[in-house]
Specification:
3 helices, 3 domains, 455 residues, Porin, mainly beta, Ubiquitin-like (UB roll), 16-stranded antiparallel β-barrel
């Protein structure tokens, strides 16, 4: 929404007919859109109705970059009104001001705007800018956009912003019987108010190992929407087995999408064999659309990534190609919500290492089953949910269904069902659920808990 406190108005009435519905003809360049596009259903031959028309026309010209527009209004008959507009000078952008984003450098937002002070003002570029701001992960709402006439006789933009969660500290656990598995995570989405991202996580394993992951993202290299991202990780898929991986990616951001390219190295150290190597290039794309509502994010996010490279180990080598597709989506209609996640991918070409295969099981992939319950050569997991609630605090039911080609047991079709509750209280967000393998019944239920403190 754009508001203004400045405009020039010129009104001339040739007659004052009785109040009736008018036919309105608006002339001028650039041409004013139809009345319904200005938010006007009809114009009556009354002072108040014509005043609304006057304000709407001049507001439209202001938003197009013509703060000095004028208009003359002439009755040529009792039911016909002519509006002649004079746009005046097309103003330049004089200044950009950010309100409501304390602690974040203004350049984080200003660099998303294509036009700079001194360039002709463009409504299209400003609308696209606001859309880009709303895609920032630490922004809750890009609010009102105000236009003012600056001291230099050109337009000043004041953009109001409502910040969201700039990151979190999280702890999670998974429990069944006498076994407890825990994890911790810290995430900064706006490190030091610069939009830099830092994520560090760790997780214990049933066999006494510790999985660790670190990701750092440096945005806007060379003053353009190009980011660099470094990821390093260590994984213990089973006792005495270690996997280590490093990935360097370059990310190009535009509108609601990101294109990713990079390279990675993976090294596997199985307990009963020589070192395994996989050096690869990667490419991917992400797309996110939707908006934040009271219940959460109402929209869809798609991530697609493929890797291909040389695999070497145990007297064998060859080209290995792998791919992964993740789709997250939510739709809220009143108190009812429908959503879920789709995971699919695996080995597309070549021989694999067992330690490289996708591990299915646990809260993030296949609820009701333990971590690393299945190693899948190729897989598809659907995680549908139905939830109930008027806010982010919601009860939900889930039923995770999978089809997985495993290296030793062939095709498997596990199903895990359960229920949970998730919601916000102050800075805390909690997700507690219980799930069980459908084939084994309630006696095999596992409990999940994730507690997040926003920063």
């Amino acid at each position: 929404m754009i508001t203004t406190i400045s405009a020039i108005l010129c009104i001339t009435f040739a007659a004052s007919p009785a109040e009736s519905k008018l036919t309105v003809d608006i002339g001028g360049s650039p041409p004013v859109p139809a009345l319904y596009e200005l938010g006007i259903d009809s114009v009556l031959a009354s002072d108040s109705s014509i005043t609304v028309l006057q304000e709407s026309v001049l507001q439209w010209y202001l938003e197009e970059g013509y703060p000095f527009a004028g208009a003359g209004y002439y009755f040529i008959s009792d039911d016909s009104l002519i509006v002649n507009t004079v746009p005046g000078r097309h103003a330049l952008l004089e200044e950009v001001r950010i309100e409501g984003a304390e602690g974040t450098r203004s350049e984080v937002f200003e660099r998303l705007l294509v036009i700079e002070p001194g360039d002709p003002y463009s409504r299209e570029e400003v609308n696209a800018w606001v859309s880009r701001i709303e895609q920032l992960k630490f922004i809750k709402v890009a609010g009102t956009t105000e236009l003012f006439l600056g001291e230099g006789g050109n337009l000043v933009i004041v953009q109001h912003i409502q910040k969201g969660r700039a990151g979190h500290f999280a702890a999670s656990m998974e429990w069944q019987g006498d076994y407890l598995e825990g994890a911790g995570e810290v995430l900064f989405l706006n490190l030091a108010g610069t939009a830099r991202e830092l994520e560090i996580s760790g997780k214990t394993t049933e066999w006494g190992g510790f999985n660790a992951y670190l990701r750092y993202r440096e945005p806007w290299l060379f003053g353009i929407p190009l980011s660099a991202q470094l990821e390093v990780s260590q994984e213990i898929p089973e006792s005495l087995w270690v996997n280590r991986e490093g990935i360097l990616s370059i990310i190009w951001s535009f509108d609601r999408s990101e294109i990713i390219g990079g390279a990675g190295i993976w090294r596997g150290y199985p307990p009963d064999g020589e070192r395994q190597k996989y050096d690869y290039g990667l490419a991917g794309i992400t797309f996110r659309t939707g908006s934040r509502v009271q219940q959460g994010w109402d929209g869809i996010e798609i991530q697609l990534e493929a890797r291909s490279g040389n695999r070497t180990g145990q007297d064998s080598s060859g080209i290995l190609t792998m791919a992964e597709l993740i789709i997250n989506g939510n739709i809220y209609r009143g108190v009812i919500g429908f959503g879920g996640r789709l995971l699919t991918g695996g080995v597309m070409q070549g021989d694999w290492f067992e330690g490289l295969l996708e591990q299915l099981g646990g809260q993030e992939t296949l609820r009701g089953y333990p971590e690393n319950a299945f190693r899948a050569v190729r897989y598809a997991v659907a995680r549908p949910e139905i939830s109930l609630g008027e806010t982010e605090t919601r009860l939900y039911l889930f039923c995770d269904l999978a089809a997985a080609l495993t290296p030793f047991d062939g095709m498997r079709y596990p199903v895990g069902c359960g229920a949970g509750i998730r919601g916000m209280s102050g800075i805390f967000y909690a997700d507690a659920a219980a799930g069980f393998p459908f084939q084994e019944g309630l006696g095999s239920a596992r409990l999940y808990l994730r507690l997040t403190a926003s920063i």
